[in-house]
Structure formats: structure tokens, C-alpha cells
Amino acid sequence: MADNARAKRLADLIREVVAEKLHRGIKDPRLGTQVTVTDTRVTGDLREATVFYTVYGDEEDRKAAAAGLESAKGVLRSAVGSAAGIKHTPSLTFVADALPENAKTIDEALARARAADEEVRKASSGASYAGEADPYRKPGESALEGGDGGDGEDESA
């Protein structure tokens, strides 16, 4: 079994080789500049590699890119094998990365929070404090102004 550093190096090499081959080596119109390789993970035994990718476009472009990657899997694995120079070339599995959808969800949540903050700011623009503007006692104020002296004891006794 390989160590984690070797698996990490192989994953980085696979990511670079697959990205380069997609952009310059494969003449499939379904692939090309609209497919971006985001991450690659290799199992500990270096037999399987998962390549995560994103596609710029709509759902039809994503389906076409998935089909294009599946058809180019052999060519890409061959390129990885010649670049890696290892005994067994890992089998490649392509998985659409959920990163754009997650980023979109976060952006929408931030936009809702900004809108709520703006509503609160507008509502509080003409508001005033419920009590005094400064509820704290100052060092020059006497404690007797508040009523019974503030000590809680009865002075008639």
C-alpha cells in the first residue's frame, strides 16, 4: 500500500494531465474550454482515481460533457499512464463537482442576509432608545436621586 504523499502526488499529476489533455489533446466538441477539472482523489492502493469536474453551461452541456468524458476515459487513462510511469495505471471515474451549486446556495443566503440587514437598518433609522439615551450612571451623579438611596434599607428604623 502506498503512503499518502505518493497518492497525493499521483492525484496532482492526474489532475494536471487530464486537464491538459481535455483542453489541448481531445477534439471532442462536448469537451474543451467549458470543462474544468477541480480535484482528483486517488485510493490508497493507487488503483482507482476519482476526477471531479465542473461544466460551464446549462444542464444539457453538463450531460454532454459527462458523455464526452465517459467516451474519452480510455484516452485519458492512457495519457495518465504514460505520464505517471507506474506499474498499474489507476482507473478513472469522473464525478460532477457540486461546488458551483454549493457556492450558489451560499451566495443566495448571503443576499438574503444583506436584504434583512438593510430592512433592519431602514426600520431603525428613525427609532430611539426605549429608556434614556445613556442608561449608565455617571461618577458625578448622586445615588439619592433614584429614590430611597439605593441601599434597600428602610431609613425610619
TrEMBL record:
<dbReference type="InterPro" id="IPR023799">
    <property type="entry name" value="RbfA_dom_sf"/>
</dbReference>
<feature type="compositionally biased region" description="Acidic residues">
    <location>
        <begin position="148"/>
        <end position="157"/>
    </location>
</feature>
<feature type="region of interest" description="Disordered">
    <location>
        <begin position="117"/>
        <end position="157"/>
    </location>
</feature>
<dbReference type="InterPro" id="IPR020053">
    <property type="entry name" value="Ribosome-bd_factorA_CS"/>
</dbReference>
<dbReference type="Pfam" id="PF02033">
    <property type="entry name" value="RBFA"/>
</dbReference>
<comment type="similarity">
    <text>Belongs to the RbfA family.</text>
</comment>
<protein>
    <recommendedName>
        <fullName>Ribosome-binding factor A</fullName>
    </recommendedName>
</protein>
<dbReference type="InterPro" id="IPR015946">
    <property type="entry name" value="KH_dom-like_a/b"/>
</dbReference>
<dbReference type="GO" id="GO:0005829">
    <property type="term" value="C:cytosol"/>
</dbReference>
<dbReference type="GO" id="GO:0030490">
    <property type="term" value="P:maturation of SSU-rRNA"/>
</dbReference>
<keyword id="KW-0963">Cytoplasm</keyword>
<dbReference type="GO" id="GO:0043024">
    <property type="term" value="F:ribosomal small subunit binding"/>
</dbReference>
<dbReference type="InterPro" id="IPR000238">
    <property type="entry name" value="RbfA"/>
</dbReference>
<comment type="subunit">
    <text>Monomer. Binds 30S ribosomal subunits, but not 50S ribosomal subunits or 70S ribosomes.</text>
</comment>
<keyword id="KW-0690">Ribosome biogenesis</keyword>
<comment type="function">
    <text>One of several proteins that assist in the late maturation steps of the functional core of the 30S ribosomal subunit. Associates with free 30S ribosomal subunits (but not with 30S subunits that are part of 70S ribosomes or polysomes). Required for efficient processing of 16S rRNA. May interact with the 5'-terminal helix region of 16S rRNA.</text>
</comment>
